Amino acid sequence: MLRTAGEIRFDGKRISGRATEDIVRLGIAHVPEGRGTFVRVTVEENLQLGAMTRRDRAGIAADIERVYAHFPRLKERRTQQAGTLSGGEQQMLAVCRALMLRPRLMLLDEPSFGLAPLLVAELFAILRRLNEETGVAMLIVEQNAALALELAEHAYLLETGRIVMDGPAAVIGADESIRRAYLGY
Q1: How far apart are CA 176 and CA 75, in angstroms?
Q2: Which pLDDT score is estimated for 4?
Q3: Who contacts 71 (Cβ-Cβ below 8 Å, separation ≥6)?
Q4: Environment class of 99 (CB within 10 Å of its CB; exposed 0-12, middle 13-18, buried 19+)
Q5: Most-buried pick from 27, 44, 88, 106 (CB within 10 A)?
Q6: What pLDDT, in 10s, does the model give residues 90-127?
Q7: Per-residue pLDDT, 145
Q8: Burial of 6 (0-12, 13-18, 19+ CB in 10 A)
Q9: How far apart are CA 131 and CA 150, in angstroms?
Q10: How far apart are CA 152 and CA 155, in angstroms?
């Protein structure tokens, strides 16, 4: 849908210009900014939609229970229409829906946007745990630089759409000029 330039590769294969459904079948899940839940269907139906490309019914049922274990509030609301959830719950649902794909790579666009600080901390702790437990790689675009650097192994610092620095997150987070300019200390 967008005009692109350059080349995007995943697992050594060129994916730029491929249809979205083909990219999803490669194991790439997207959690868009602004939640992106299907508001007129239930929480559980949203999760089932996330597993749409899968055929292993027993695995899907097990994964639904697994995401409910990570996000118990969603289990409490599984029959509730997604559009009636709070913003934080919708963000959790968007992450869970992406996990239902059993992705190899999750693309998260501003996952903390509009969330209360306690909910942000909870969400990022769960993302860290999911990364450690499942090995899913995550590409996170996040304006809260301090939070992103705590979670990341590698970081790219963008300024007006250009990469101005990249390297190990711990190194970038320890750089005094970066700390003053972007982290507020």
Answers
A1: 43
A2: 64
A3: 92, 93, 95, 96, 126
A4: buried
A5: 106
A6: 999 999 999 999 999 999 999 998 888 888 998 899 99
A7: 85
A8: exposed
A9: 13
A10: 6
